[in-house]
Amino acid sequence: MARPDSPRLLLLLPTTTYRATAFVEAARRLGVDLTVASEFPSTFEGAQPTGLLTLAFADPPRAAEQAAAFALEHPVAGVVGVDDDTAIVAAAVAARLQLRGNPVPAALAARDKHQQRERLAAAGVPVPRFAVFPSDADPEPLARQVAYPSVLKPLRLSASRGVIRADTPAGFAAAFRRLRAILADPEVAACGEPARRVLVEDFIPGPEVALEGLLVGGHLHVLAMFDKPDPLDGPFFEETIYVTPSRLADGALRAIAATAQAAVTALGLVEGPVHAELRHNDRGPWLIEIAARPIGGRCSGALRFNIGDDGRREGEGSLEELIVRHALGMDAPAFRREDRASGVMMIPVPGAGELREVRGVEEARAVPLIEAVVITAHRGQRLVPLPEGSRYPGFIFARGDDPGQVEAALREAHRRLQFVVG
């Protein structure tokens, strides 16, 4: 329960996010006042004027002014955005209220894949060769200009939606048209100019890792390195298993961390969570994506940290707690992940169609080392595979003494699940 003198956190939560529960629980554990802001009004807002707030997420400067008006009566000590879009709103609010946060131009550059590529390349950060084309262009002549294999990407979508590998000119033309159709979806087209361009870059071979970090005064504290043991070679790039600690050599991990630090410096990011995707091969690390937000979906449930200043046992601090502590300027006595290995599987979409039933959930939960099997899709929901889709039907979590054992447990649990799709 918050104390009368507790600091207030402004948490920016889109209505479609999975992240609400984890951040609300972190705020409760820390005893801070919490105001949850969304882009649509809540029917409970009138009854909870300090707990709920509506902000114009689509217009960050306006949202910052709305937050400032709220803060006149209810002072705000910190602001957190949980996804790519609210990271920009958080930067605008932080600048307006003089709170910890990133400069707005840095947050914008992290959000837009083309701006990000331009800034990183100019700073000498190793990124794939890239070009940008209008989405309404004729793909046939473009197909003769690019190197193969290549990867086509939208500038703004996440969760690998719309990302397609092409190995030949004919494959490029087909992928370009398919991505153009995705960008024409009204929900996607609403983002404006970014939906009218396509990023094309060289495919980078090698194992991919995910880095979770926290920026403090421009210094990147690496919180975790995840291996992605399933090859991400295309034609689509559906992520499945994350396991930490990484099994790459120490030298490779140091080089990956240094590349991520160079990337945040090049973008001008200075405060808050960072999630990066990198590949490593015989030429070293390559920055594939970096975002000024925490890991997506429910994947943060795979992370626990040693935060013992209040007498709790080791490994009981969440990623969300670290983020809230940082935003409010509270002491964070450790940035060290628990000693055990852990992992999460983003359950692959089993096929297109309406979800009728999920069988074998209890059998999956019974697998040794499995901590949770969470089915987020509901009966009757339409499942859409990549590259058009972007939502996983659920998550599996495991912990153990060895990352190999954790990976094996996740695979066995997934093997026991059966999705009935009609």
Question: Mind explaining what this structure looks like?
Answer:
The structure is a single chain. This protein is globular. It is 30% helix and 26% strand. It has helices at 20-30, 60-73, 84-97, 104-111, 113-122, 139-143, 169-183, 186-189, 250-267, 319-328, 361-365, 403-415, and strands at residues 8-12, 33-38, 52-54, 78-81, 130-134, 150-154, 164-166, 197-202, 208-216, 219-227, 241-244, 272-281, 284-291, 341-346, 353-359, 370-375, 382-383, 394-400, 418-421. With 422 residues, it is α+β, with helices and mostly antiparallel strands.
Task: Explain briefly what this protein structure is.
The chain is built from twelve helices and 19 strands. It is an alpha+beta fold and 422 residues long.
Task: Using brief descriptors, characterize the structure shown.
alpha+beta, 4-stranded parallel sheet, 4-stranded antiparallel sheet, 422 residues
Give the uncertain stretches in residue-range form: none
Question: How much beta, percentage-wise?
Answer: 25-35%
Q: What's the gyration radius in Å?
A: 21 Å
Shape, please? globular
Number of strands: 19
Order of strands, main sheet, comes to 3-2-1-4
First-residue to last-residue Cα separation: 46 Å
Tell me, rounded to a whole number, the average pLDDT: 93
**Considering DSSP H and I runs of 4 or more, what fraction of the residues is helical?**
25-40%
- Continuous helix count: 12
Would you tell me the structural class of the helices and strands?
A: alpha+beta
Largest sheet: 4 strands, parallel
